[in-house]
TrEMBL record:
Residues 1-78 are annotated as: Disordered. GO terms for molecular function: GTPase activator activity. HAMAP family: GAP_YihI (MF_01058). Interacts with Der. This is Der GTPase-activating protein YihI.
């Protein structure tokens, strides 16, 4: 009995050419070659310089340690007291706030300070121009004046 050769045969019955490379098993390439960490790190450094920086690192823009001072806006100057008085009387914001007060609503601190400031300036301008600011309702009636005098009499004077 003849020994059968272990060489693979082609479908036609002919023996294939053998070489030492064919005799070895071919390895499947799974994974990366040895030392791949080093090459990836170098590539990452090159690409990272081109890409945007990590947002956790922060900005290089200097941060002011003291808040900048706000320059207050200079109030509007009127040429004459009469013009300023007219401007105050035609102020829509003041008018809306006064309507709010008349209807019984409460004003915020900012609104109240604005109303007080404008009314004080209005009174000052009226005094400068010689305009009487009292309304006819505020004037005392002679009958009410007598009634007040009667109730305010000091009785101890007459004893």
């Amino acid at each position: 009995m003849a020994r059968a050769s272990k060489k693979p045969r082609l479908p036609g019955g002919k023996a294939s050419k053998s070489s030492s490379a064919d005799d070895k098993r071919h390895k499947r390439h799974s994974g990366k070659p040895a030392g791949s960490r080093n090459t990836e790190a170098k590539e990452a450094l090159v690409t990272k310089s081109r890409s945007p920086k990590d947002p956790r690192i922060g900005s290089r823009k200097p941060v002011p340690l003291v808040a900048p001072e706000k320059t207050p806006a200079e109030p509007l100057r009127h040429f004459s007291p009469a013009r300023e008085l007219k401007a105050i009387e035609q102020d829509q914001r003041l008018e809306a706030l006064m309507d709010k007060v008349d209807s019984g609503h409460k004003l915020t601190a900012e609104e109240k300070s604005y109303v007080d400031k404008q009314l004080a300036r209005h009174l000052e301008l009226c005094q400068m121009l010689g305009i009487e600011t009292e309304t006819p309702e505020a004037q005392d009636d002679p009958e009410e004046d007598l009634y007040d005098r009667f109730h305010n009499i000091d009785v101890d004077k007459f004893k």
